[in-house]
Design brief:
The protein has about 400 residues and is of the alpha/beta class. Helix content is about 45%, strand content about 10%. The protein has 15 helices and eight strands. About 45% of the residues are buried.
Length: about 400
Amino acid sequence: MERSWSAIPSDRASSDRAGDGERLLLAPVTITPTKPVLPTHTKGFLWVDALYRGTRALGDVEYLWNTRSACLAGQALRYWEYLDRTFGDADLAGLSVHELGELYVKAHAEPAPPYPLLRPYAERAEQGWVHPASERILRAWADQLGLLHVLDPGFFADRPYRLTVDELIGLLADRHLCLDHRRFGGPAYLDGTRWGMPLRPVVSADGHANYLLMVLRDLVPRIAEYDRVLLVHDEEIGHDYVLVERILGALGARTSRLALGRVPIPGAAGSSRSGGWAGTALDELAALCLDQVGPDVYRLGMRIYFINTLQRTGGSPVDLRLLHRAMTRAEGLLARADHDAPANYDAPAGRDAGTAGELRRLLTPSGWVDPYRLTCRLLAKDGRGPSRRLIEEVLL
């Protein structure tokens, strides 16, 4: 069953209507295109993909991914400035995604350049431009996630912001949710003091807007179009997303959050900016697995490992023994599903009613299908696992 990586229309996020559920906006934090798909990224993509595909069978879901937001982050701007300063007009097309990732590590080993040097890159990224190195990385991500049958979130979709920085800050300031000291030569802050939260800088004194402002530029103009908003983010930035959730709630949104723990890399210290991920990137794990199992077993085994074995919270590092065990379990599950599938399981009416019924039991109170409960049901020892059709539609 092939999955298409076609472009998504530029004027909206990907949308699937199926059923009579509420309208849900699924908004995961974006990832800067500066490195290979690492274990924490793989976990995030697989959780969000299962959640999206499961929930869209019950209602109207839009998956919002804006590559602009990732490219306007300081990590990406700093990386691009380093590449151009170091290599000039040299063609980097011959470099692999891993070699480009090593250059990202080198860029962050240097002192951060002043923002005036980064501003030209930010101005171009604001218009949808992506540095050729990051474009190459995005295409590698697309290939690797396509092999996993992760639906395209819209890496190459053009999604201009509906609000400028000044418009958003003005809107928030009018509601006492922002302190703007830029006219005095100072920064701008998100103001969550009414909830006992500290001021959070979002625009520096020299004009650099951080990622939180880009999140709000994406979400604030859209919240009236949806019944609920789901924010998906790393546990480590949970404090920022609690503030985002409070601000969206003050503007009328019904929100929920899904915080996913990072996946530590054995022997690596600190964040991905320090490197040390050799042997754990998605393409490397795929090569290890596909040397032993077929594509469907690989796809289901990766979901079992990153969703069920690692679970939602962080702390467990990449363990190739447990990954191998997940592949073995996937192989057995698929063999039993093929053997036990009723002869008419492809019948459209029975398929739709049965799949929706199975998924409805996995809904959270906030209106989205829980990927962990889904994989627990898959692995249940009582013999009442999901149908083959549900496995194909959500997990393969």
